[in-house]
Amino acid sequence: MTMRLVTSELVESREILPGQWIQSFHAPALANGSRAGQFVHVRTGDYSGFVLRRPFSINTTDVATGVITIHFRTIGRGTEWFTRLRPGDTIDMLGPLGRPFEVDPRSRHLLLIAGGLGMAGVRHLADEAIRDGRQVTLLFGASGARDVYPSSLLPDEVEYVIATDDGSVGRRGFVTDLVPEYEAWADQAFACGPAGMLAALARQAAGRRQRMGVAKLGRKRGGGRTDALGSPAARRKAFLQVSMEQNMGCAVGACLGCVVMSVTGTPQRVCREGPVFASDEINWEAGW
Ligand SMILES: Cc1cc2nc3c(=O)[nH]c(=O)nc-3n(C[C@H](O)[C@H](O)[C@H](O)COP(=O)(O)OP(=O)(O)OC[C@H]3O[C@@H](n4cnc5c(N)ncnc54)[C@H](O)[C@@H]3O)c2cc1C
Ligand code: FES
Q: 22 with 69: CB under 8 angstroms?
């Protein structure tokens, strides 16, 4: 679906964790036309007359009711402003924006990896994958119990594994520590979270071929053909896709405010070429 400007009505607003909210908006055009990994650019006020748009992942969609949700943490004036909206209030959303996750039709086992608010980046993919009959394991990392995403908000079919830095829930340690236990099982992995976490996962993914002898589906998929870096076909073949965050200006590819560097030295706009990339497309050392 092409991007459009959609007037969306707030249906429900819930604080699911301290300072973390899920808001539901009636926006049938977005519910129908969005794919997992895409985002909306939402116009917010801040009660000082200053109006800006802020980007949020499309957290879930429900085609039957035309409702989409966003999940956010109150971090500044724009996100605070959202929490004061009441059901019936309308806001405008530009979307769906960005390129989605690419799931290979042959992949049966998907590993989703989320750090903190990164849950919002992979949440929709869990629904899509379950709907398509795939098995999903979701590894989630947070600093402690107060930030652990409730399992009740996930589909029952998802295997949910938690790591916390302080060990207050689940395994003690980083979510990246859990990955080695699942990498042989998974056909593909999809991650969203802090840049440091994504860089660590990219390093793990790069070493996977050697550890496992051969990438599990790589032999079948490779077939001698090389797909252009950054193409949907190349991303579908990658073991790991990451959804990245950069501060955004326009979110439509014009201002170049959101670039990260590719391995070939070509600037990549997170809002247009991303936010989803294959982990091996990105030059993680470039510092952007
Ligand atoms: C593609 C994309 C998808 C996103 N999806 C989500 C989502 O699903 N849920 C969610 O909670 N957030 C998401 N974000 C981040 C979100 O857009 C920002 O948190 C939001 O714009 C902050 O607005 P604010 O006015 O409340 O904060 P501001 O007043 O703009 O900023 C407050 C403070 O937070 C810092 N800050 C602002 N943005 C970020 C950021 N992206 N990362 C780290 N620090 C930041 C600022 O530097 C400042 O110190 C996404 C960002 C991108 C680019
Ligand atoms: S935010 Fe303007 S080019 Fe990406």
A: yes
